[in-house]
Design goal:
Elements: H1 20-29, H2 42-47, H3 58-62, H4 87-100, H5 104-130, H6 133-145, H7 150-154, H8 159-175, H9 184-200, H10 207-218, H11 225-250, H12 273-292, H13 314-331, H14 338-354, H15 377-395, H16 406-430, H17 434-441, H18 461-480, H19 484-504, H20 508-520, H21 524-537, H22 542-551, H23 555-571, H24 576-588, H25 592-605, H26 610-622, H27 626-639, H28 644-653, H29 659-672, H30 677-689, H31 693-706, H32 712-728
Helix pairs in contact: 1-5, 1-6, 4-9, 5-6, 5-8, 6-15, 6-16, 8-9, 8-10, 9-11, 10-11, 10-14, 12-13, 13-14, 14-15, 17-18, 18-19, 18-20, 19-20, 20-21, 21-22, 23-24, 24-25, 24-26, 25-26, 26-27, 27-28, 28-29, 28-30, 29-30, 30-31, 31-32
């Protein structure tokens, strides 16, 4: 392609050919988000994050991961958490906090200003890549007003997307000078921008491929090609030399997450290879729909939206068509037509940007998210603009069949841009607070009245759980205000939401919240049953442990017993049995880390004691230290092969990595304790993991028949039966 400066001016100095319309519209469309508060992930990353409260905490800001949370009470963080490294974004929040503390308007205004500036950078890049001022202006305006960007701009934590995109654009502009041929000095100038983009968000790792495609699009002298490309390639990879060691150190000797993402947020985790391929097409289809018809937007696309076992759906077909279009566009690189060559370059840039979030090569924490499309939408919208402009010039230009209707079509285009801008304004207002965002995205009216038949594309177990927590908080406020009628209304709404969440994805969180609902209604026995059922699904949840202990009436007694045992341990520090007993009481109180410390001392004192080793393994599980727990439980089984509880624990821990070994331990546990619900459920799941679906279903149906109609676990077992039946079909 030619450089933009070589293109003769078209149409004189028309004002709309500059960057200002895009910059202005980009600011205006999201200006109302400055009145929003802290919403969704803003609360954890900004509002309640002590790391951003000081600019001098270098290690806390620059050498820890995004979700790192450690306190004196819980000094062990979840090793399976999503390993994200975004220190520059955290530092930007620290700058905001230094300027205006926790007043949200300042954080939102910063995002709005960044988006407006990025719109100007998109215009500059489009000028250099497309060599067509009208196309550059239209593409920048389309980017500025597009509603798919609302999550990145209106959500404060979308700052990572904004910074990474802005810095990638700055790097590309430095790499592709306006008046000179790109050379080594330009690649070196671009390197700091690319490194900063990586420190803002890891998705910027696509920059070497994107930059190489952009360089190729500019054209090179054949005599310099091999040597020139080797030099440029080395410079493009240079930022990774600094970034990867920093990331490895900050993420505690990891580059990516250790375990699999949660199936609640990324259902492709539980899919087999054919389902993964179909699911990847479905994800692409949803992104295409969001780019072309962004009517329905959501902050969560979880297990109800993406169902890999549902087979081919409309989004899957759209994704298949998109793949065909992209391949056809790439083939256009062989064409002499400037339109096809531009489309080929932009398609290649989109694919290079999209592959990391596509859930094909690597499973990420979510199946899809609107904010992830912020940077990939740059080449996507530029390509869409090129295609539409090519069609316009062919059909509406001089001699075209629609030339006489060009004015009407131009007016329709302006109306479409206005509609997109209005949708962005409305969507920005949805991010005002959690309650408004979640009710909107679940398709509920503002009084939270649940539709009799929900659109499956609106269901979200995560949002139902989150909104139920808000309803429970309203119920507590109403109870404190002496309004039992309002309390009951809020509790009823919370219960309905939690019932939907359990139908979609039965997990301990929904059962815990239902326990709280029944507790506030005064039914302590039923609340305790829900808490105990939740503990079976989430044994490491400290809040459930403490709530169950309080309801059993044992909390006060356990606190007294813990104090007595602590005094006894001080008097007899070498008594391993006392430490084991103290650890069990501390676990009942939800003080898991303190229990682990006692167990470590007990095992040091009595390394061959089975009771000490068993308690040590259980404490390690509760503190999310899987590998060490496996070692402890294996030592127990070696000394006492008849320990059914340890066999059950090993079956649960080995389920993901060694299903065959998990089945052997599950069979041993069930043989030793055939009437225990835990061993029965564990064996059924082990059979399912090993592909023995019929046997798993037989056992689950027997368990379901043995559970009372009002038992909270009955729904969980029934939902698992239905899922396995669908898999078998």
């Amino acid at each position: 392609m030619k450089r933009a400066d070589a293109e003769p001016r078209r149409g004189g100095q028309r004002w709309w050919l500059g960057p200002w319309p895009a910059v202005l519209l980009g600011a205006l469309c999201f200006a109302n988000s400055s009145f929003n508060g802290f919403t969704y992930d803003d609360n954890a990353i900004v509002k309640h994050n002590p790391r951003i409260r000081s600019l001098t905490g270098f290690r806390q800001l620059w050498l820890t991961d995004w979700w790192f949370e450690r306190s004196d009470e819980e000094p062990i963080v979840d090793p399976g958490r999503d390993r994200l490294y975004r220190p520059l974004t955290l530092f930007s929040f620290a700058l905001n906090y230094a300027a205006h503390e926790l007043r949200p308007a300042g954080y939102h205004l910063t995002n709005i200003a960044l988006h407006a500036a990025i719109c100007g950078l998109v215009w500059l890049l489009a000028r250099r890549l497309l060599d067509d001022p009208p196309l550059a202006a239209i593409a920048a305006v389309l980017f500025a007003v597009h509603p798919i960007h609302a999550e990145a701009v209106a959500g404060i934590v979308g700052r990572g997307e904004l910074l990474a995109t802005g810095l990638i654009l700055l790097g590309l502009l430095a790499l592709l000078p306006r008046t000179a041929a790109p050379g080594l000095r330009h690649a070196l100038r671009a390197a700091p921008a690319f490194l900063a983009a990586l420190l803002a968000k890891e998705t910027a790792v696509c920059y070497p491929a994107v930059a190489a495609i952009a360089l190729h699009a500019a054209g090179r002298a054949p005599a310099r090609r091999a040597r020139w490309w080797l030099t440029q390639g080395a410079c493009l990879l240079l930022p990774l030399v600094a970034y990867l060691p920093l990331r490895y150190y900050a993420l505690e000797r990891h580059l990516i997450r250790v375990g699999q993402p949660s199936p609640m947020f990324n259902p492709l985790v539980d899919a087999d290879l054919p389902e993964r391929l179909v699911g990847a097409l479905t994800v692409l289809g949803h992104y295409v729909r969001l780019l072309i018809v962004p009517g329905r937007l959501s902050c969560d696309y979880g297990i109800a939206v993406i169902d890999p076992r549902a087979g081919v759906e409309l989004p899957t077909l759209i994704g298949g068509v998109a793949v065909a279009v992209l391949l056809a566009a790439l083939w256009g690189s062989r064409s002499r037509s400037p339109i096809w060559r531009r489309l080929a370059v932009l398609s290649a840039m989109f694919l290079a940007s999209y592959v990391l979030i596509s859930n094909t090569v690597l499973l990420i924490g979510v199946s899809l998210a609107e904010r992830l499309m912020y940077w990939p939408s740059v080449p996507a919208l530029l390509g869409l603009t090129v295609a539409l402009a090519g069609a316009w010039r062919r059909w509406c230009g001089p001699g075209g069949p629609l030339r006489r209707r060009a004015g009407l079509l131009r007016a329709c285009g302006l109306l479409l841009l206005a509609a997109l801008a209005l949708r962005s304004v409305v969507r920005s207002s949805d991010w005002k607070n959690d309650e408004r965002l979640f009710t909107t995205d679940l398709g509920l009216s503002q009084d939270w009245q649940t539709p009799t038949r929900w659109n499956p594309q609106r269901q979200s177990a995560h949002l139902c759980n989150s909104l139920a927590r808000i309803a429970i908080a309203h119920a507590v406020d109403a109870a404190n205000a002496g309004d039992p009628a309002a309390r009951d209304r809020w509790l009823e709404r919370a219960a309905r939401l939690l019932e939907v969440a359990l139908d979609i994805h039965p997990r301990g969180e929904a059962l815990k919240h239902l326990g709280t609902v029944h507790l506030l209604r005064g039914d302590e026995n039923l609340a305790l049953r829900y808490y105990e059922s939740a503990l079976r699904l989430a044994p490491a949840d400290r809040s459930i442990q403490q709530a169950a202990a309080r309801l059993r009436g044992a909390a006060a007694a356990d606190e007294r017993r813990a104090a007595e045992l602590e005094r006894a341990v001080q008097e007899q520090p070498d008594n391993a049995a006392l430490r084991v007993e103290l650890a069990r009481v501390l676990i009942a109180l939800g003080r898991n880390y303190e229990a682990l410390q006692q167990c470590e001392q007990a095992v040091r004192l009595a390394p061959d004691d089975v009771a000490a080793l068993r308690s040590y393994g259980e404490a390690l599980v509760l503190n999310l230290q899987r590998e060490r727990a496996l070692e402890a439980f294996r030592r127990v089984v070696a000394r006492d092969p008849q320990d059914w509880q340890t066999h059950a624990n090993l079956a649960a821990l080995l389920a993901d990595d060694d299903p065959a070994a998990a089945l052997r331990h599950a069979q041993s546990a069930c043989r030793l304790q055939p009437h225990n619900l835990q061993t029965q459920l564990g064996l059924a799941e082990a059979y399912a993991l090993n592909g023995q679906t019929d046997e798993a279903l037989r056992r689950l149906r027997n368990i379901e028949r043995g559970l009372a109609a009002d038992d909270p676990l009955r729904r969980v077992v029934g939902q698992r039966i239905r899922r396995l039946e669908r898999e078998r079909r």
